Amino acid sequence: MFLCIKMRSLIKFVIFTVLLLVIYLQQPLLADTVDKASGAKVFSANCAGCHINGGNIIRRGKNLKMRALKKYKMDSVEAISNIVTYGKNNMSAYKDRLSESEIQAVSTYVLKQAENNWRKQ
Ligand code: HEC
What we know:
Elements: H1 2-46, H2 48-51, H3 66-71, H4 77-86, H5 100-115
The structure holds heme C.
Heme C (HEC) binds at residues 46-47, 49-51, 56, 58-59, 62-64, 68-69, 72, 74, 80, 83-84, 88-91, 94, 106, 110.
């Protein structure tokens, strides 16, 4: 009888641990898809007007393709979120229009898209 109770609580413990592990492992995946979705949304609402398909309708050379990002040292989330926050020349600042997490999401999205050469998803 005593053993039986012990076994049951052991089984409960194992199931609980496995469940926790599953939830824990799912999280980065979930965070990634949410980030990508909202990054894409922020981009199409705020950036696509000038940067449609990763281009630049005002200054063609300063586009969002990996080559240009590398050339102008914009190939990091920090650098992109910096230009988005404070703007530069003909690109306006977004610090009053976007939240910090939106800026983070859109910058991550831009870098990911550049890595994928702006292929349609
Ligand atoms: C009004 C048009 C316009 C909009 C809207 C705009 N940009 Fe820009 N963007 C520019 C221009 C012009 C430049 C070039 C700035 C410079 O270096 O002189 C630029 C440069 C950049 C660069 C650097 C590219 C490089 O190759 O150096 C990044 C990254 C960027 N924009 C991201 C964004 C993101 C993300 C958004 C939306 C939140 C956005 N831009 C909205 C016009 C725009």
